[in-house]
Design a protein that fits this description.
The complex is a heterodimer of chains A (274) and B (161).
Chain A lengths: L1 H18 L18 H12 L4 H9 L1 H22 L8 E6 L4 E6 L10 E4 L8 H23 L8 H18 L2 H7 L2 H25 L10 H4 L3 H32 L9
Antiparallel strand pairs in A: 1-2, 1-3
Chain B lengths: L1 H8 L1 H19 L3 H22 L18 H13 L3 H18 L8 H32 L4 H9 L2
The chains are: A mainly alpha (274), B mainly alpha (161).
């Protein structure tokens, strides 16, 4: 297999390297990729959508269908992880508890752990000591990460940013919380149900914004139709429509990232993990 | 010397091709499933770099139009919105026209890099992370089923029934 692989990549690589001579030069203004569609996008984005960030306007308006189905792909990936890995919590599972006054660790079979007791604390089977510095730094940072993520989502029209980037940042903040503390604390704050509901709501917002335009009487995802609803003219309505869609994307991406992390890090048990 | 200038002129493509072949080799020849997944990610990175480099134009800036304090399309668009709120359709249309005009006058495609590859790769990166999650989930499932991530050992177990 190794020899076959080496032969394949040698042939493929040499062919590709040989035909790079047909490719446009680095930074060529007249390269084929920059001469057909992109001049239209660059020159008409303000008059069509009133959004200065061309990437955002192409992402959510000109190529709205593409992005909608990309969001659906992300939701499908989250569901696939869930369906592949998630196993319902069994009672035969054993857990570890520490008796705080004495420091003795006990192993409890099944569901018979001391409920409502505050002398026992739950610990993971691969327990790592509580680290004050990591915990404190992460707790301090998470707020700012989330605030910045919201800025990235809301300011995607005027600066680099948008739903995907902001959603990933929001997801990363919760994952950072789960890594710095433990998985259970994160799940307590952002549960699996929340993740499932938010991810499907995000896709629903995107598709719903498109369908609303359809019901008003114009094409699917033609946000101009939302103008009378939002109290703006047809061009600004496109800008607002893009914002609505970006919020949907951010919700879906955030929830799916967190959901995939929960399932991967705990092998589907969501009981103890990284 | 000719070969040298040929390599230098297309050096970026050479880098992507080599990176892509590293990923492809890992996908074909590596025995461990996690290493295959790493190879897939390297391959994907090569494609992303290739696309983003296509979008570059010499002397151009990022694909965000200059706006803000100048009296460009932004102020006119706001004006248009204001007019529409007052219900004067004609004024709004005029303003929209003015916006269009301002956009045409100010924006030249030469000044901004190609936004299209950036859009495609923006979604591809996030979708890539999501599919990476699915790939790792499948690898975990395989490990749970067979107790190993080595491909030949899995094949051996499949052959033995």
């Amino acid at each position: 297999m190794k020899i076959l692989g080496k032969i394949t990549i040698t042939i493929c690589g040499l062919l590709l390297l040989f035909f790079t001579s047909d490719f446009p030069d680095w930074g060529d203004v007249n390269s084929p990729a920059s001469t057909h569609l992109s001049p239209y996008f660059i020159e008409h984005t303000i008059e069509d959508t009133a959004v200065p960030n061309i990437v955002t306007s192409v992402l959510a308006d000109y190529r709205g269908y593409d992005t909608m189905f990309e969001t659906t792909v992300i939701l499908t990936a989250g569901l696939a992880c869930f369906l592949l890995l998630r196993i319902p919590r069994k009672d035969s599972i054993h857990r570890y508890y520490r008796h705080e006054p004495t420091g003795v660790t006990i192993r409890v079979e099944g569901d018979r752990y001391p409920k409502g007791s505050n002398v026992f604390t739950r610990i993971d089977s691969s327990w790592v000591p509580y680290d004050l510095i990591i915990n404190f730094t992460c707790r301090l940072l998470i707020h700012f990460i989330q605030l910045f993520a919201l800025y990235v989502v809301a300011h995607g029209h005027h600066s680099p940013g948008g739903g995907f980037q902001g959603g990933v940042l929001l997801g990363a903040s919760v994952i950072l919380f789960a890594i710095s503390g433990n998985l259970r604390a994160a799940i307590k704050r952002f549960g699996e149900k929340t993740a499932a509901i938010l991810s499907s709501t995000g896709v629903f917002i995107y598709a719903g914004a498109g369908a609303l335009c359809l019901f008003i009487g114009e094409q699917f995802l033609n946000y101009s139709a939302l103008g009378p609803l939002l109290g703006t003219d047809r061009i600004m309505a496109r800008s607002h429509g893009i914002l609505i869609v970006e919020i949907g994307v951010a919700m879906a991406v955030m929830a799916v990232m967190i959901w995939i992390y929960y399932n991967l890090s705990s092998a589907g048990k969501q009981d103890e993990g990284l | 010397m000719e070969l040298f200038s040929f390599i230098v002129a297309k050096a970026d493509y050479w880098a992507y091709v080599i990176l892509m072949m590293v990923g492809l080799y890992a996908l074909i020849a590596k025995n461990n499933l996690v290493k295959k997944i790493v190879g897939m990610t390297i391959f994907q990175t090569a494609i992303i770099l290739f696309y983003v480099s296509i979008g570059y134009k010499k002397g151009a800036t990022i694909p965000i139009l200059h706006h803000g304090s100048d009296h460009g399309g932004e102020a006119l668009a706001a004006h248009g919105a204001h007019a529409a709120a007052h219900g004067t359709q004609e004024v709004a249309e005029q303003a929209a026209h003015a916006v269009a005009h301002a956009g045409e006058a100010a924006v030249k495609a030469m000044d901004y890099i190609n936004p299209l590859p950036h859009v495609l790769m923006l979604t591809a990166i996030v979708v890539g992370v999501a599919t990476l999650g699915v790939a790792l989930a499948l690898a975990m499932k395989v490990y749970k089923e067979y107790g190993t991530l080595e491909e030949d050992e899995i094949n051996q177990q499949l052959r033995n029934g």
